[in-house]
Amino acid sequence: MGVDVTALVAGGVAGFSVDTSLMPLDAIKTRLQSPMGFRAAGGFSNLFAGVGVAALGSVPGASLFFFTYETTKANLAGGPLSDYQTQMAAASLGEIAACLIRVPVENVKQKRQAGLFKDNSSALRGIMARQGYSGFYTGYWTTVLREIPFSMIQFPLWEALKVEIGRRRGDGTVHSWESAAAGSASGALAAAVTTPLDVVKTRLMLGSDPKGVPYDGALSTLQRVVRDEGAGKLMAGVGPRVFWIGIGGFVYFFAYQKTRYLLEEST
User: Which of 93, 105, 129, 200 measures 20 to 30 Å from 207, CA to CA?
Assistant: First the structure.
């Protein structure tokens, strides 16, 4: 099986595994970042709200990311860019592509998690009625601007850790669980650094502040959060986010690496 198809399949398995298994932590993070406050947004109730739409979007989103990432790396190999620069470029393009699927899913999922709609159907109808199709892409560029720095930290670090693991073993091999551990550590670090961008993205997707005043643009939203709630609010949900992405990184990269190994061994 060619590397591109392998990346598509392995990425889909990885995305489905992490998005469905860790939905409760994602919901807690979203509610901590909600302008309504944690309890008003749902607290610890119904932590699997939006899991259906998340599962539906996780497979194509992760598949598209890894397809783009691996294809870009292969095309840039041997060129003027260093390995680190190649990995950053590949990860950035992967995120731009994946967000075409991820952002509509996030818009529905986060509105469900914050208690704005009781089910996926009403969320879909509500977004369409209020904003039309463009409503599903609210926060697209904010998400991209969050995901690109995240991936520019996570993926080169993940690749470097794998190289170091293989070097220490002496034969260059990396077990699936070792790739998972490297992904967990790199993801947790990237998650902490990019939490302010995640808060802004969440506010834009939820739509308005507690007084019903709509958020408008990433910079304006960031300024309003700092002005009205203090700079510390930009780190809201950092604990669950780091914990979720740390664990999620292990699940994600284990599923990806293991699936790739199995597919490559079968050919």
Answer: 93
Check: CB of residue 187 under 8 Å from CB of residue 244: no
- In CATH terms, the fold of domain 3-265 is Mitochondrial carrier fold (1.50.40)
Longest dimension (CA), the chain: 60
What pLDDT digit, counting tens, does each position of 99-157 carry? 998 898 888 877 877 778 878 788 889 888 988 888 889 888 888 888 899 999 999 99
Q: Tell me which residues of the chain have a pLDDT lower than 70.
A: 1-3, 50, 267
- Give the span between the Cα atoms of 116 and 119, in whole angstroms: 9
- Domain boundaries of the chain, sorted by first residue: 3-265
Contact 58, 21 (CB under 8 A): no
How far is residue 83 from each of residues 34, 123, 193, 200, 256, measured CA to CA in Å? Answer: 39, 43, 23, 31, 21
